[in-house]
């Protein structure tokens, strides 16, 4: 019973809540190219583009390989100056529930790349210090304050305004600690025993 309930809790927690997190859906650029997507463009399925234009790549472009699949973004697009473009998507959340956000930050040509991730009013900045044309997976946890949370990504304040690479976004409900799962199972077992005895 413990294994079954634990598996159910973990399985329900591990469903990715983000649509098109690796930027594979929509009218992709020609292979090997970046396309500029202006504010308001609907080409990138699932995401709203605001603040400034972004660049969307299909495969390797300017020597930058995607982190996952073929699609990846540069949030500074072709304008290469602050402010960067921003992408946003509303996800369904449960008030008080914690969520784990994972995403890859990409660099280009020795420039510092930093991504700011936002969930409603909560935010954090993540840098990839690893040099030329690399990706680094970053993770962040936020706690939902409403039934719908606006998840957004933009170039962070410490980035070089040349390239802020972004790929492989996922959001999952935070998995309870083993002690929490054990407490849940114990409570359910006690409830079942109480019903049988009454």
Short structural summary:
The protein has 198 residues and is of the alpha+beta class. It contains two helices and eleven strands. The chain has one domain: Jelly Rolls.
Structure description:
The chain has 198 residues and is α+β, with helices and mostly antiparallel strands. The chain has a single domain, classed as Galactose-binding domain-like (Jelly Rolls), CATH 2.60.120. Helix content is 16%, strand content 36%. It has two helices and eleven strands. A six-stranded antiparallel beta sheet has the order 1-3-4-11-6-9, with no helix packed on it. Strand 7 and strand 8 form a beta hairpin. The chain starts with a helix and ends with a helix. 32% of the residues are buried.
Proportion of beta-strand residues:
35-45%
CATH structural class: Mainly Beta
Helix content: 10-25%
CATH superfamily: Galactose-binding domain-like
SSE map:
Layout: H1 2-13, E1 34-37, E2 48-50, E3 54-58, E4 71-74, E5 86-92, E6 98-106, E7 113-119, E8 122-128, E9 135-143, E10 148-155, E11 165-173, H2 178-197
Antiparallel strand pairs: 1-3, 2-5, 3-4, 4-11, 5-10, 6-9, 6-11, 7-8, 7-10
Write a concise keyword list for the protein shown above.
Jelly Rolls, about 35% strand, alpha+beta, 2 helices, six-stranded antiparallel sheet, single chain, five-stranded antiparallel sheet, about 200 residues, disordered N terminus
């Amino acid at each position: 019973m413990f294994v079954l309930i634990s598996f159910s809790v973990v399985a329900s927690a591990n469903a990715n809540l983000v649509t098109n997190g690796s930027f594979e859906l929509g009218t992709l650029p020609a292979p090997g190219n970046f396309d500029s997507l202006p504010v308001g463009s609907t080409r990138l399925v699932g995401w709203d583009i605001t603040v400034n234009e972004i660049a969307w790549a299909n495969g390797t472009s300017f020597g930058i390989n995607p982190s996952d699949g073929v699609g990846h973004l540069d949030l500074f697009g072709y304008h290469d100056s602050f402010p960067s473009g921003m992408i946003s998507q509303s996800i369904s959340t449960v008030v008080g529930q914690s969520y784990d956000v994972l995403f890859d930050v990409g660099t280009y040509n020795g420039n510092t790349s930093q991504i700011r991730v936002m969930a409603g009013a909560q935010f954090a900045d993540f840098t990839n210090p690893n040099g030329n044309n690399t990706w680094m997976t970053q993770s962040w946890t936020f706690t939902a304050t409403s039934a719908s949370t606006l998840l957004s990504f933009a170039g962070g304040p410490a980035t070089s305004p040349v390239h802020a690479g972004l790929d492989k976004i996922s959001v999952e409900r935070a998995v309870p600690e083993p002690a929490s799962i054990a407490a849940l199972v114990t409570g359910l077992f006690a409830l079942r025993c109480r019903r049988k005895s009454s």
